[in-house]
């Protein structure tokens, strides 16, 4: 049970759930902060507009009445200046709910204060501007911060203030509600994250289950789901492509093992049989010499197979370093043709060189010599006796040149041509055995050409087969 809990905690599903819930919580907090500051700033803005409107209304009334307070004399109606001012601004003060604190002064003389100020004089630093809005605190009149506006107009200075108590109460009530519902939303986000991760990763579980069922014995099966055009669909498609590549590699390895074993078995069987014959009874010196010659030929054949396999393996693992030098191509091919003339003479075959121009190229002479020799040897062995083998070379452009080996061959199909560079592939097994081929020569040629960043292909035209190799000039 403990291991299962630990596995779940470490799973992507659990991490997705936590990340989803945390992201939801962060967004919730950000939203709460935005709402808090929006409500606060909006409430302050509305309060400022109300205070400003009230202060300007008071000033307007005072100016419109044309009252001279400096020459005021008590009467039966107004016993004091305060009574006169109160009567003048009554409508503004009574019918505006935000008239908490009001103070009107002219010069250094206070001519009116609202009753809730209790004769406490509101004093603020002199301001240069006509209107100023600010916050202040005065525990004598309120325990909360107070918002005030001061307007100077002519002889009058009007201060209208209102405590922020109601604003804070509204916002604090909203905060309390938010604190209560935040955990609820967090739990909902956890459940939602768990549900979303479960549904999202259920296809991963199916992919894992199907992948576990695929072994080396059923690589032909595919993982379903690549038809979906999303991340999981692309993942499944790439996994199926990988499985197909693995299947191709395993099939190739199996075929390679079978072919290599078959090729090695034949000369080893011949060696064993001839050695057994030699041991069963005494032979004449001439007979022993014939047996040794046969063993020597089979040994050379084994060495050639192993050398070719070793070379192909090294080339595929980038273990061969090229030693490029600049060489005259015509002179290079003349030397190769000269060495191959002995085998061509045995087959009554003529080797012809055709070149339109004399040029030089940069390549590894030993490797290219091996490749061209293999092509010529292949053309002599499998071509029709009495017909020439034509070797040609020309510059294709300023970057590439070709080397072509062409021979008469009327018994090869297009299907054979497509597989002719495969290892151990032989067009005609009986003829191959007679000529001593093992199906590795053209594979070696292809490996050498690939090392030089070139290309090689075989084309059949009429009764001729042509091997065309393209290589870079430098």
Outline the structure in words.
The structure is a single chain. The chain folds into 3 domains: 2-168, no CATH class; 231-315, Signal transduction histidine kinase, dimerisation/phosphotransfer (DHp) domain (Helix Hairpins), CATH 1.10.287.130; 320-472, Histidine kinase-like ATPase, C-terminal domain (Heat Shock Protein 90), CATH 3.30.565. The strands form 3 sheets. It has a 5-stranded antiparallel β-sheet with strand order 2-1-5-4-3. Strands 7-9-10-12-11 form a 5-stranded mixed β-sheet. A two-stranded antiparallel sheet has the order 6-8. Helices cover 56% and strands 16% of the residues. The protein has 474 residues and is an alpha+beta fold. Strand 1 and strand 2 form a beta hairpin. The two termini are 67 Å apart. The longest helix has 54 residues, at 12-65.
Describe the structure in brief.
This protein is of the alpha+beta class and 474 residues long. The chain is 56% helix and 16% strand.
Which band does the percent of strand residues land in?
Answer: 15-25%
Overall strand count: 12
Task: Tell me the major beta sheet.
Answer: 5 strands, antiparallel
| Low-confidence runs | 429-438
Order of helices and strands: HHHHEEEEEHHHEHEEHEEHHHEE
- Helix content percent band: 55-70%
Whole-number tally of structural domains: 3
Q: Strand sequence of the main sheet, in spatial order?
A: 2-1-5-4-3
What is the global morphology? elongated
Give structural attributes.
56% helix; Helix Hairpins; 474 residues; five-stranded antiparallel β-sheet; alpha+beta; five-stranded mixed β-sheet; single chain
